[in-house]
Amino acid sequence: MSINWYRGIIVGVDGSDESLVALDWAARAADLHEARLTVLATYAVPITPDPGIGDLIGEMRDQANQAARAARNLLGSRRPGGHDLEVVVVPGAAAYELIQRAEAHELVVVGRRGLGAFDRLLLGSTSAALAATTPGAVAVVPAGASAGDPRRIRVGVGRNDEPDVLGAAFSEADVRGCTLEILHVTGSDPITSALPEMDPVAASWHEAAMADLADRVARWSEKYPRVTCSVVIRRGDRISALLYDLAPDDLVIVGGHRHPPVMGHLLRSAPDAVLRAAPCPVLVVHAQR
């Protein structure tokens, strides 16, 4: 798998500092991949026709238009990816509208402003909903993250990854000119972690898994000879290992699986946990179904 956003990149903005950082990151990605960039601003339309609702809708529409203007002002005369910038303002919920348009784009980018812990537990967020349900790749850019090229890409890999996030990580490291750290976590269960040392069959399975990973790394290294990579093997919790010593100028890439929209709000997966806590952009590459 290689990253090539040939169908374009779409980024959601709401005028907040977080969304403008995400816009800057998306514009850089568009430049690197020569992809067209679409900026989407939304405003909610209440279902209940209460008195005075027209004025409220008008205010929210004005706010969305202000967010769109802020996006244009930030980019100025830039033509991300060498294409004319498209700015769209539509009624609807941000997550829903971005998911609907994701089919026509390779990458969806959003900022992460964060909710309170209780709100996250019950409702999730726009970024969490997109990471769980979007058909393509999703990049979540938190407040304080660097919008420039990362100093390091960290990719979490398993024995059999679907999609092949390793290929995506090599491709992105190549185009961004940064080092690649390939992280494999064996597990946090002390019993299963000790099996390779206690059981010859388990040891053989572990060696086969490591040989398979080494073979995959070698094949991608041959395809991308400019990428400097290292393999890190850790025991412990996968999420903690992925988050360990991350900085705002890193980039984390993880694999994900799409879920129905309702389940997307309820599920708590490794990608979801990482994107909620990482201080740097997180790219979730979804398996195709």
Task: Give an overview in words.
By secondary structure, the chain is an alpha/beta fold. The protein is built from eleven helices and ten strands. Strands 3-2-1-4-5-10-9-6-7-8 form a ten-stranded mixed beta sheet, with helices on both faces. α1 packs across α2 (53-75) and α3 (94-102) runs parallel beside α5 (126-133). It is elongated. Residues 115-124 and 259-268 have low confidence and may be disordered.
Return the average pLDDT rounded to an integer: 82
Radius of gyration: 20 Å
Coarse structural class: alpha/beta
**Strand order, biggest sheet?**
3-2-1-4-5-10-9-6-7-8
Helix content: 40-55%
Number of domains: 1
Helix and strand succession?
Answer: EHEHEHEHHEEHEHHEHEHHE
- Largest sheet composition: 10 strands, mixed
Please tell me the CATH architecture by its name. 3-Layer(aba) Sandwich
C-alpha end-to-end distance = 15 Å
CATH class descriptor name: Alpha Beta
CATH topology: Rossmann fold
Range of strand content: 15-25%
Task: Please mark out the parts with pLDDT under 50 across 5 or more consecutive residues, or reply none.
Answer: 115-124, 259-268
Q: Based on DSSP secondary structure assignment, what is the total number of beta strands? A: 10
Query: Total number of helical segments?
Result: 11
Shape: elongated
How do you describe this structure in short?
With 289 residues, the protein is an alpha/beta fold.
What would the keywords be for this entry?
289 residues; alpha/beta; Rossmann fold; ten-stranded mixed β-sheet; 10 strands; 45% helix
